[in-house]
């Protein structure tokens, strides 16, 4: 597959956990199986949530699991200029607008009702910027490599925030601009982001960017049924001694790749070599949730 470029884009709000490993490993295998590139991007657009040194911890964890990336690491906190340019283009097209509403004011609605589309109701307040989800192609449809044909009406999801009132850039705008900048051809990520895709497709179309292929992965949950996340205090990926060998084997099992039992305790390089050769995303089952190993 000429020109395949994948990426892993963690938020450095804490160390990687088992759910993070699933996303990183699947995107890595998907790229390496076809001889493609795999990039690392640090999504630190929200500095208050990103403790110093966490990006280095993430790099160290990826190294311990043999997940080597290509080229320089992109860091979103360095990319204010491209985000500003994209927002200006959207505003000029009438697709982005300043919004003065607080979440408390529209909390009885299922999503933001677009009150400021024709101008901010309270211009004296700090202003966020939102995407007009009611303009452009609707509904939005695309083919997900696991979940098949998807069809969403973005207006049911509301007008996504592009820039917060505190001046911080949103994930929705940053991820679209960065995927285009890095010429990402294939996005492999968790199914919790499936319903973010319609906004991102709208932004790609408005900004003239190509649309990547998407593969959304079943989520990994803890024994209590909660999604594994840093907010839920998921355990950090172990990096000491032989621990990565067993954890990597468990991740391959969670990805339905049926790794050879005899490689369960093998060095990560050997496990990855076999997994790259045998990678088959059609083995993935569509169940929305998998329990992490104890």
Explain what the structure shows:
- With about 290 residues, this protein is α/β, with parallel strands linked by helices.
- The chain has two domains: about 5-75 and about 185-195 and about 220-290, HUPs (Rossmann fold, 3-Layer(aba) Sandwich); about 80-170, Rossmann fold.
- It contains eight helices and twelve strands.
- Helix 6 (about 195-205) links the parallel strand 9 and strand 10.
- The longest helix has 16 residues, at about 20-35.
Q: Are there runs of 5+ residues with pLDDT below 50, and where?
A: none
Q: How many E strands?
A: 12
Distance between the termini: 37 Å
Instruction: Give the ordered list of helices and strands.
Output: EHEHEHEEEEHEHEHEEHHE
Could you give a quick summary of the protein structure above?
The chain is α/β, with parallel strands linked by helices and 294 residues long. It has eight helices and twelve strands.
């Amino acid at each position: 597959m000429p020109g395949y470029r994948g990426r892993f884009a963690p938020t450095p709000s804490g160390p990687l956990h088992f759910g993070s490993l699933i996303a990183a490993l699947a995107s890595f295998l998907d790229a390496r199986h076809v001889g493609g590139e795999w990039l690392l991007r640090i999504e630190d657009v929200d500095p208050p949530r990103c403790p110093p040194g966490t990006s280095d911890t993430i790099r160290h964890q990826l190294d311990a699991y043999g997940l080597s990336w290509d080229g320089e690491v992109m860091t979103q906190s360095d990319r204010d200029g491209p985000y500003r340019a994209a927002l200006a283009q959207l505003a000029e097209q009438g697709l982005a607008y300043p919004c003065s509403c607080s979440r408390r004011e529209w909390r009885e609605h299922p999503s933001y009702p677009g009150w400021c589309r024709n101008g901010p109701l309270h211009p004296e307040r700090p202003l966020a910027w939102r995407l007009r989800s009611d303009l452009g192609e609707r509904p939005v449809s695309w083919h997900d490599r696991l979940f098949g044909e998807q069809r969403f009406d973005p207006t049911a999801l509301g007008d996504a925030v592009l820039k917060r009132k505190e001046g911080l850039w949103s994930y929705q705008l940053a991820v679209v601009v960065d995927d285009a900048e890095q010429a990402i051809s294939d996005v492999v990520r968790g199914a919790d982001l499936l319903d973010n895709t319609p906004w991102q497709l709208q932004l790609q179309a408005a900004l003239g960017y190509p649309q990547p292929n998407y593969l959304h992965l079943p989520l990994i949950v803890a024994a209590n049924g909660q999604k594994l996340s840093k907010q839920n205090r998921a355990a950090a990926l172990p990096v000491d001694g032989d621990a990565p060998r067993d954890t990597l084997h468990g991740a391959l099992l969670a990805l339905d790749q049926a790794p050879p039992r005899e490689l369960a305790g093998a060095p990560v390089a050997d496990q990855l070599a076999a997994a790259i050769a045998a990678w088959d995303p059609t083995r993935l089952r569509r169940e929305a949730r998998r329990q992490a190993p104890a």
